[in-house]
Amino acid sequence: MKPLRSASAAVKVKLSSIQGCIPVRHPEVALSIEVYHNVRNWVKTQEFLVLGQQTLTELRDKIYCLTDKDQETDGQHNHSGYFLIEDTFYNDLRDPSAIDYSEPIFDWLSNSKDDALKKWECILAGKMQKHKKAVVGDITGSKLPRFQAADMHKTQFCNLKFQLGAGYLYCHQGDCRHTVVIRDMRLLHPEDIQNRAAYPILLFQLKLHVQKCRVCRIYRATKMTVNDKWTPENPCYFCDNCYFLLHYTKDGSLQYQDFEVHDYHHDQPR
């Protein structure tokens, strides 16, 4: 029942980071939404309190994923993405360079109906428990849902059709996929923060483990080297200053190149 508490009791919001004050219009619904890790899909990474009148893009802009950081560092950040909730793909097309990820899926559904139906039946068979099969019967002959597409930035949570506790899909950066669960829903009450600009409110953030520099043992690591002959560990972690002191000469020349170097943000959650 913890997510059902008021936001003011569950989390401390930094008011200085909120720009402006927009009064909440009542009656208003608050939804508790969980986001799970893209690889370790049993690990919850974030939980938000979102207002029913907010758009899906307002939630998307708050979701943190290391893949976004890596793509930004490599100069390959992709603004495209979608939520798949029930039978609708909600595409983020705000940026002119964004790609509609649902288009090739619709093409495949149209051109490979038999394969799509078989895969859909396998999904249903995997979800259906044995004791339910006796009641529901054979799933052969089931029909594919009538999938459709909509704009993410034009869709509010109050206009969604969803099931509490069901797992939905958030996809970004091409093929980075997260399970999203709408865990709870309730009316907003006076003890909640009444500034719409404060939402979505972060109720939970997975604590990320960060390595320290292996040289100075003081600062947070920002670089990771692999197969580096001058390091005591493989891989080895450095802050910016120690990395350049070890690997570069005074005139700025790299002393040796037979190693790999990567930007480091934090460890993957366990």
Task: Describe, in plain words, how this protein is organized in 3D.
This protein is α+β, with helices and mostly antiparallel strands and 270 residues long. It folds into 2 domains: 26-205, Structural Genomics Hypothetical 15.5 Kd Protein In mrcA-pckA Intergenic Region, Chain A; 223-263, no CATH class. 21% of the residues lie in helices and 23% in strands. It is built from 7 helices and 11 strands. It has helices at residues 7-10, 56-60, 66-73, 102-111, 113-127, 130-136, 240-247; strands at 29-36, 44-51, 81-85, 88-91, 148-151, 167-172, 176-187, 201-205, 223-226, 236-238, 260-263. Strand 6 (167-172) and strand 7 form a beta hairpin. The longest helix is centred in the middle third of the chain and has 15 residues, at 113-127.
Q: How many domains?
A: 2
Number-wise, the strands total 11
CA-based gyration radius: 23 Å
Helix content: 10-25%
Class from helix and strand fractions:
alpha+beta
Layout: helices, strands, pairs:
Layout: H1 7-10, E1 29-36, E2 44-51, H2 56-60, H3 66-73, E3 81-85, E4 88-91, H4 102-111, H5 113-127, H6 130-136, E5 148-151, E6 167-172, E7 176-187, E8 201-205, E9 223-226, E10 236-238, H7 240-247, E11 260-263
